[in-house]
């Protein structure tokens, strides 16, 4: 008999300002696709905390527009738990650019809820190390929160 090997993994998802009004639908999609929410925080980036979160993109052509967008209104950061969570969440959200997602993967969250190539509804960590860096960055007191939820079922 095979011993059960858990591949349970965490990833960091975020609902961006353009999709605030779709928060309920996106959380519904999260559960429909077998993810568990371990932590959720609604908050607001300052210029400083957004710059820290997106430090790897500093100097790129879209950087200033990205920071303006991400500091414009409330965001919801969500830590997800599932098997292969990083890869599965990236598949569910689709390509970075909404315009590409609408053509290539019309069933993805960005295709359905994205606004344009910067305002693309949601974020997803691109690797395990990114998850760690991003979750530490977002769930720190540097990002002011208006609501904070921790699930007892999976909290560690
Ligand atoms: P994310 O980090 O938000 O999950 O998205 P990603 O890995 O698919 O894309 P990334 O290259 O990390 O870019 C971060 C965010 O910057 C904005 N962006 N705009 N206008 C543009 O060409 C452009 N390129 C990137 C998007 O909001 C993207 O999610
Ligand atoms: Mg990225």
From TrEMBL:
<feature type="binding site">
    <location>
        <position position="120"/>
    </location>
    <ligand>
        <name>ATP</name>
    </ligand>
</feature>
<comment type="similarity">
    <text>Belongs to the NDK family.</text>
</comment>
<feature type="binding site">
    <location>
        <position position="16"/>
    </location>
    <ligand>
        <name>ATP</name>
    </ligand>
</feature>
<feature type="active site" description="Pros-phosphohistidine intermediate">
    <location>
        <position position="123"/>
    </location>
</feature>
<protein>
    <submittedName>
        <fullName>Nucleoside diphosphate kinase</fullName>
    </submittedName>
</protein>
<feature type="binding site">
    <location>
        <position position="110"/>
    </location>
    <ligand>
        <name>ATP</name>
    </ligand>
</feature>
<feature type="binding site">
    <location>
        <position position="96"/>
    </location>
    <ligand>
        <name>ATP</name>
    </ligand>
</feature>
<feature type="binding site">
    <location>
        <position position="90"/>
    </location>
    <ligand>
        <name>ATP</name>
    </ligand>
</feature>
<feature type="binding site">
    <location>
        <position position="62"/>
    </location>
    <ligand>
        <name>ATP</name>
    </ligand>
</feature>
């Amino acid at each position: 008999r095979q011993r059960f090997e858990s591949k349970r993994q965490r990833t960091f998802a975020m609902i961006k300002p353009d999709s605030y009004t779709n928060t309920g639908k996106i959380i519904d999609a999260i559960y429909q696709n077998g993810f568990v929410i371990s932590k959720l925080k609604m908050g607001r980036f300052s210029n400083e905390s957004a710059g820290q979160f997106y430090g790897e993109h500093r100097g790129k052509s879209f950087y200033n527009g990205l920071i303006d967008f991400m500091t414009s209104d409330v965001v919801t950061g969500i830590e997800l738990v599932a098997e292969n969570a990083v890869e599965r969440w990236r598949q569910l959200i689709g390509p970075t650019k909404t315009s590409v997602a609408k053509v290539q993967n019309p069933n993805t969250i960005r295709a359905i809820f994205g606004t344009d190539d910067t305002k693309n509804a949601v974020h997803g960590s691109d690797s395990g190390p990114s998850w760690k860096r991003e979750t530490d960055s977002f769930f720190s007191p540097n990002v002011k929160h208006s609501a904070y939820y921790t699930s007892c079922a999976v909290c560690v």
